[in-house]
Amino acid sequence: MPRTPAENDRIRRATQAQILKTALSLFCEKGYYSTSIQEIAKQAQISKGLLYHYFQSKEEVLAALVDIRINDVLVVMNTAITKSTPAAQIRQIIEGALDDVRLKPEVFRFYLNLFSQPKLDPIVAKYSQKLMDEQARQFEVQTEIFSQLGGKNPQQRSLYFSSTLQGIMLMFSTYPQSFPLDAVKAEAIAEFCK
Question: 59-192 belongs to which CATH class?
């Protein structure tokens, strides 16, 4: 019995997700340049030809991963700005970011890894810059939220907030079994949502 279009679509999405998950893991472990398309295909348990059916190059795989990360950030920020008060918006950013890192610590490690790779590499630099540009846009939104909360220097407060949140995410993604994420999240909410 032939597969339905819905079944074909489900298989396509599952295969693409497996490719991206595998590439993410290898890029984090070995770096972008030390990972080959052949390795991604082998670990994803598909043929190299099938991988090329989904992505024409390793750079396209990297681009897709960066787009996923940007989308994750946008989901958190877009949800936050729908909240009725600045304190609720900051709380949503904290909860969204920390819930996201709890579910996908490897994504945060990938993001950090990408920033730490050499900037002289034109491919890696292009996608690192794309992430930084989005981060800068989100920082502006966040600074406006802190401005609405009051205080003397909303930009500095926003920078401190981002640094704190990034540090928490780094610690959790490094020590997911022992880091007390819920307790630290509660402290961040108490500090920044007043």
Answer: mainly alpha
